[in-house]
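Thread: adenosine-5'-diphosphate complex, take 2
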Amino acid sequence: MTEDPPPVVAAHGVAKTYSNGTEALAPVDLAVAPGEFVTLLGPSGCGKSTLLNLIAGLATPSAGSLAWWGAPSSRSTGPERRIGCVFQSPTLMPWSRVATNVRLPLDLEGRPRADADAAVVRALEQVGIGTFAHHLPRELSGGMQMRASIARALAGEPDLLLMDEPFGALDEFTRQRLDSDLRALWAARGLTIVFVTHSIQEAVFLSTRVLVMGARPGRILASRAIDEAHPRGEQFRASTRFAQHSRALSDCVMAAGAGAFAPA
Ligand code: ADP
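Output below.
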């Protein structure tokens, strides 16, 4: 009998109160299995970024514990386990070419140059901007800059990709294209992703599971599996199933706003 692999990340009773007394996150339990696309959905201020930072190991919980691949520290999982992060702003160095920007984390970890260059070429191809390697960031549109930011995270071959509202600042058309491409990339590469958004439609389109969060204090109120086949194209966006998922999640978010949920 083969054992299930440990969760990529597991949180047990994890809570966060900031030093100014803000209770950003009440105790939450969460486990992300390999290959899942989990989205944290909720209004501003409900603790999505706080939870994502805890999952990234960038913040320490006030209570509870986290485990990454079954180990108690995100840094004790060995060099073969990597966490990549993408934020709302592409945070590219404006004076450096796209390829140099994407190579930066590999340079910082001392990867041999030829190896790093090959990884950069692969990552840029995967996000569809292979021909822009030698451009400066300002020569790219907002959507392409975000593709470069995703390439930078992918170049390190992450075992877990964390994305904090990466497409929130983009226009709706660009956002939908990037959502489609991200979903295809997730399937092709077998990625494990935790994604943050306040867009119900984006959550339904992308995810295998959506966690609805509420505020004061931030907490997980509901979980909904988006058990729909891949690929998900425009037909899925226009389908009755898409509308049903969106309605159900919208009802959760509304009820949370109205205070109809008791704290978990
Ligand atoms: P979201 O990502 O859902 O918008 P956040 O996790 O950013 O929510 O914030 C949750 C709550 O914690 C908010 O009330 C926010 O103002 C507060 N908060 C976030 N970061 C800090 C911080 N560094 N210090 C104090 N309060 C913070």
